[in-house]
């Protein structure tokens, strides 16, 4: 049934500003922009070892019934090599800390959580499992 992660979409009020912020954070330009770069409603980046897709979607296109007053849903944790360094970098770019970096109990596992300036939750994780899967490729 489920075969893997394809795309995560973050809802934003200003796609152009969010795209600029994420471009600075990620160090790559979006590969997909609609309808155009001057008035984007959706932009998408491919990032990381698996070229995972991060989309920034104009909040006007949120699923019916979605309410930003009561956000809910999954927290996507992105594997990073250094949780503290990435957490600090995100804060320097204007993100808000939600959960400081902390170990998860097993050696090598660490986690933290921030909110981007647009209200989306970003999970950070150092995952030995992720590294093992990449080594097996």
Describe the structure in your own words:
The protein has two domains: about 1-60, Signal recognition particle alu RNA binding heterodimer, srp9/1 (2-Layer Sandwich), CATH 3.30.720; about 75-135, 2,3-Dihydroxybiphenyl 1,2-Dioxygenase, domain 1, CATH 3.10.180. The chain has helices at about 15-25, 85-90, 130-135, and strands at about 5-10, 30-35, 40-45, 50-60, 75-80, 95-105, 110-115, 120-125. The chain is α/β, with parallel strands linked by helices. About 25% of the residues lie in helices and about 35% in strands. The protein has three helices and eight strands.
* Series of secondary-structure elements, N-terminal to C-terminal: EHEEEEHEEEH
Number of helices: 3
Number of separate strands = 8
The H-level CATH homologous superfamily of the largest domain, spelled out, is: 2,3-Dihydroxybiphenyl 1,2-Dioxygenase, domain 1
Low-confidence stretches: none
Strand content: 25-35%
Fold-level CATH name of the largest domain: 2,3-Dihydroxybiphenyl 1,2-Dioxygenase, domain 1
In summary, what is this structure?
With 137 residues, this protein is of the alpha/beta class. The protein is built from 3 helices and 8 strands; from the N terminus they run E-H-E-E-E-E-H-E-E-E-H. It has 2 domains: 1-61, Signal recognition particle alu RNA binding heterodimer, srp9/1 (2-Layer Sandwich); 75-137, Roll (2,3-Dihydroxybiphenyl 1,2-Dioxygenase, domain 1).
